[in-house]
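fyi for ur records
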Amino acid sequence: MEAIQLYDTTLRDGTQGEKISFSAQDKLRIARQLDDLGVHYIEGGWPGANSKDDEFFAAVRSEHFENTKIVAFGATHKADIAVEDDRLLNAIITSGVSAATIFGKTWDLQVEKILRIGLDRNLELIRESVAYLKAHPMEVHYDAEHFFDGYRDNPGYAMETLAAALESGADSIMLCDTNGGTLPHEIEEMTADVRDYFSGRTTVDGRPVRLGIHTHNDTGMAIANSIAAVRAGATIVQGTINGYGERCGNADLTAIIPVLKVKMGYPCITDENLKKLRRVSLFVSETANMTPFNPRPFVGKSAFAHKGGMHVNAIMKEPRAYEHMDPELVGNRRRVLVSDMSGKSNIEYKAKELGIPLEGNGIDSREIISEIKRLEQEGFQYETADGSLQILMEKLSKQFSPQFELASFRVTVEKNRDRPCHSHAMIKIAVGDQLEEITAAEGNGPVSALDNALRKALNRVFANEIDPVRLVDFKVRVLDGRDGTGARVRVLIESRDQDSIWTTIGVSEDIIEASWQALADSFQYRLAKKLKQQKKVS
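which gave:
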């Protein structure tokens, strides 16, 4: 089976997504992660188009990559200037890369109504641009923009544009579903037509013609379309980590990679690198300042989560009964959710997962279920709050040792006419029998001030153990709006460190009290985890 090469465009096409922005240093850090994952090509950006991309290409020259080639992106030269005078094509050459990707018009509609040039002139732009880059020399990929729309309207001309690129030295042809409106059966049929059209032909240096696929997700089918193209002969797959990209996004490599590798048996990365997939997904989402999408296939927090008691009972006997693959293959893990729908199996599985022995502690799983159902009547929701669930189960089984205890806190909010609200918090905590810490801090809001004050106090005692903890998400939900401003609220705080993400919960009529419950649980969870890790090492 022919190997598939992975082409990542997170750093270029991914940044066109709404709310996605990377600095040059962000791009460099992501590129290192992608290289470690085993990606073959990383499209770094468009040199000459903006200073951020120029900074990245300057910085990447001093980097050494084990698995990947850095690719510069661009377009065919402008119709009204000579190819050697095109500033952006020359910027690709001076960027120092060994590989480039340029796009050109494949759809006659784009040529005549957008570029407003003749069809023959467009073919000249393609030939001249590809040949100019190859003369320097470098590996050149040709992105056939709007290929599938163009082939649908005028198949003869669309094929001419591909031939123009190949005859001028292009090393591969990327078929682009730029508008994202093509369906999988169409992708497969048209890619097969291209494969057959160029069957037996070679590139100018005598190698077989390589086809690639680049899809967008406007119909929700970018992943399926990429797989359809592979079935028809594409051997290079473009996409982005987490599917980031313009409009509805690009094909998501975090799903494409395990589908190719695990489901279809295509060699694309090693088994060991596949285990890094979830970590890379989280790293990119964190760098992009985007909340990780829990239901994301393969790498999402909920991808292998089980809630129904019957399902949990089954996977305890045979995981394949309700899982399509081993989650550890992609660096993920099985999760069992605990809620008022839980059965005895959920609690026993969860206790084992969390390392909480239940037998011999004066409480059984039925009592825990009963207490969870009572608390959920009050508004708690433990299926989404693993951190708080662990603390609750340890308390119910008399195994909880608090790392700190609250003595008191005070939060004030100040507002005057000339400045926005500003918050101050003072907190007093006790650690052990003797040590007390009193600290104060400011924040952008009352919860922020409380968070900052608690961090300051804990850092003094625990040698900066909670420094890596970062708040990922903060949610507040009113449980019964009929009570107006006196209604109970549920606060969920999602936190993360370098290795994991956890969620904690608080419920109260007072939003600050609910926030404190969730905040305190978050730091208790982190400190207890570090303590257990240290004991294992010693």
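Residues 305-396 form one domain. thats all i got for now
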